[in-house]
Amino acid sequence: xxxxxxxxxxxxxxxxxxxxxxxxxxxxxxxxxxxxxxxxxxxxxxxxxxxxxxxxxxxxxxxxxxxxxxxxxxxxxxxxxxxxxxxxxxxxxxxxxxxxxxxxxxxxxxxxxxxxxxxxxxxxxxxxxxxxxxxxxxxxxxxxxxxxxxxxxxxxxxxxxxxxxxxxxxxxxxxxxxxxxxxxxxxxxxxxxxxxxxxxxxxxxxxxxxxxxxxxxxxxxxxxxxxxxxxxxxxxxxxxxxxxxxxxxxxxxxxxxxxxxxxxxxxxxxxxxxxxxxxxx
Length: 281
Description:
The chain is an alpha+beta fold. Helix content is about 20%, strand content about 55%. The chain has helices at about 10-20, 20-45, 255-280; strands at about 50-70, 80-95, 100-105, 110-115, 120-125, 130-135, 145-160, 160-175, 180-195, 200-210, 215-225, 230-245.
């Protein structure tokens, strides 16, 4: 038996005929939106992956060698160190807490320091030096810079017609996860000035090993020649390690909620339209 069609003058009957399931669909949508908002809030509030790392830089077998450039001048190669110095520094600067912390070393000594988000160690010796910092876990909010360095300076007077070789074995190593800008280096520097026949001369060198990921090693070498005059200058060796951490921007929970709720509403409308088309067909 055929079901009688409602008369067009009966609005209630026509509304029920055109949208038989609209009421149930409209009741279901708010529940889905609430569930999506809860899930989005949990996702947004979940802790980000912790950042951590370890960086070292070292110089070993630091030594110098003298070579006679004129065997006929009856001058034996010689070097006189007029002054020497050794120092080191470990620093930690978390922002925005402004709890700047540091420790320094002087002379040939070793120093260890524990910071809020890590620590470090320094070692300065007559023929070796080393700097190390380790970070982890990094602060959840704000930025952090942590660094360690060691330096040695030797002021000298060099005999005429002499070549000065300055060498060391350099090693760097960086292991990290989530650090924005890791960096480490081991460096030899030198400069010298001299006056020959009233003309001033100057020369310098830099030999360095740098790294930001993994391990590396290299034989560093620098050279200075005094010519026929006496040379005066400085040799320096240094190691440096640095971690800079800047957390990535994470959307607020409200952003996740609005995005997922919007997608859910659009999907629900598209599903309802598709069902209506199938029913009419």
